[in-house]
Give the backbone structure.
Amino acid sequence: MSSIATTSRAAWTAAELADDESWVFRLDARAQRDLVDAIRSARQPDKPLLDYRRSDFDLGHAATFIAAAFGETQRGRGIALVRGLPREGFSEDEFKLLTWAIGLHAGVARPQGKASHYISAVRDAGTEYRTGRGRGYSSNAELDFHTDSADVVALTCFNKAASGGMSIVTSSLRAYRTMEDEHPELVEFLCEPIHFSRQQEQAPGETPSYPNPVFDELDGQLFSKWNRNRMESAQKIEGVPRISAQHREALEQFDLLVRRPDLAYSMWLEPGDMQLVNSHLTVHSRTDFVDHDAPAQKRLLWRLWLATPAGERLPESWRAAYRAVEPATVRGGIRGQAYDERRRAFEETQAADVGMVLPAD
Ligand SMILES: [Fe+2]
């Protein structure tokens, strides 16, 4: 895979990202006011999120900033930060609706787990992370570097922790290039399929794990997927091919690389920040945290997974994980065990509203 474009803007080092502000978008006062107005005029406290339509929210002046930030995730830096979402004066639920409204303008939200839910509260619910069923977002643990199961992840910060909970992002393209330089004998293993566990959240008809390479390329572009926890879990599932010692060594070295300070960019998400990451170009993590005592101050971020109209074709090797690989298709997510007609209808309507294609199944 020597002709791959690992020289793009998405192949950054921590220092390069720190020196560049082009991926940071600060909302001005008018954009902030327009978002407050959008939420205040559309919100009906008892209305389910799935019943809102894109046209219910006029993002006004903020729309340009938000579109530019999503554009940056595509084939720019692969990461973007929107600062200054209106946080003051918004309740947890209003801020959640703001996150949802942004998602309705950006693409089609994807389900995120066993409960087939389309938005997650990222907070410490006491979950054990390192188990065969564990999901990191509902724990306070330090997370391994990983990619989420959708094209783009949007994370809006409502409250910070008392301490810790720092967000860390690494360019997987740059890590690949470094791997080629420093461990040329191992890099080929990263391009072999390996099973990822579904952590017992599989939908009816889905297998407990699926194969996907850590890296694959299409039309000279590199795509990555990474989740050590899920790969290790899959190795314990009956019938899953066991990996060789060399393959494991490649994973080990890559795991060390993505957390190396010259590659890993650390950042604090402040209340009112929205972080966007492209799952195919970056891996991310966050440090463990200590929460506030007062319930209203506890760390809380809202997380959306999105398929977007700008979503490019994915390598065929992504089909098992994403269900579809064609451009601008509604793909990715974790369908889970509560996916029903109502959710399907939401996806159909929303796909039509943003000009995307919903696969038949
Ligand atoms: Fe994540």
Remarks:
- Residues 92-106 form the longest helix (15 residues).
- The longest strand covers residues 152-159.
